[in-house]
Structures are given as structure tokens and as C-alpha cells.
Amino acid sequence: EMLKRPDTVQIIAVEDGKIVAIEDQQPGRPMQLHLPGGRADEDDTWLDAAKRELKEETGKSYKSWRHLTADQPAAKIEWFTPIFLATDLESESKQQTDSDGEKIKVVLMTFEEVRSLALSGQYPMMSYLAPFFAKVKSLEELIEFPEFKGKEIDI
Fold first, then answer.
1. 8-15 and 81-92 strand pairing
2. Closest CA to 78 of 14, 16, 3
3. In a 10 Å sphere around its CB, with 0-12 CB exposed, 13-18 middle and 19+ buried, how is residue 76 labelled?
4. Which pLDDT band holds residue 125 (cuts at 50, 70, 90)?
5. pTM value?
6. Residue 100: phi, psi to the nearest 5?
């Protein structure tokens, strides 16, 4: 018997050769640095959830989207962490932060900075990205990474 939790989408948004990250502070918690992302609601597709989370957290909308990968971080939990690439900034508007005092600051970082942080293990909210960034070693490789087509698994 497996536990189930909502899937968690992660977005690697590229703007002017840099990656969009956020400094996120929830009430009563310290600031956390991570990439945009969040839970997929029951009636969301992963792509819909990714677009919504990116818009809410950064106020940014992108024209081009590619599904890069999907992992299941815990073998005994039905929970997936799909990663999307967003390129070609389309529009910017006001962030839609929670009314409970959530504060989000958008920061642009180099690929190398984001990769280093994801692989360091020091940022729990970036831990889902470590297996992906272990494979992808440059911004060029990220941009050229093929669309996710699914994985075969042994049952």
C-alpha cells in the first residue's frame, strides 16, 4: 500500500540567459531560495500547474514550454516531481502572493549558480532538482534537453 501526495511541479524559467529563482519567506519561517514551483491541484495537468505556479510566484508568463523530466522521489509514496523549462518571456504582471504575509522576491541567477545550489544539498526545496542538474552541466545543454516522453518501469 502506498501513501499519496499531490505532485509537485518545478519550473526552470530562462530569461536573458539567466534562470529565474525566488527568495520565498512564509510567515514564521526563514527565507528559502528555490526555483518557482508548487503543488498540482487534483484537476490540473502538470503543465497547467507549472504555468499557474510560475505566474503566481513571479508574475511572469512564458510562451515556450517543454516538459524535461518526471521523477518519483520516494519509492513508497505516489508522488511525482515533473520539471518544466519555460523560455520566451511573454508578459509580466503583479505577483499573486498568499494573503497570509508571504513575501517573494524574484532573482535572476546564472545556470552555474543554480546548478551548484541544487547539487549542494543545502537547500531542501531544491533537492528535487539535484538528479536533473547532475545530468545537465550547462545552460546550452538545458536549452537543448529533449522533451520528456515517459519512462519504462519494472513492476
1. parallel
2. 3
3. exposed
4. confident
5. 0.91
6. -90, 10
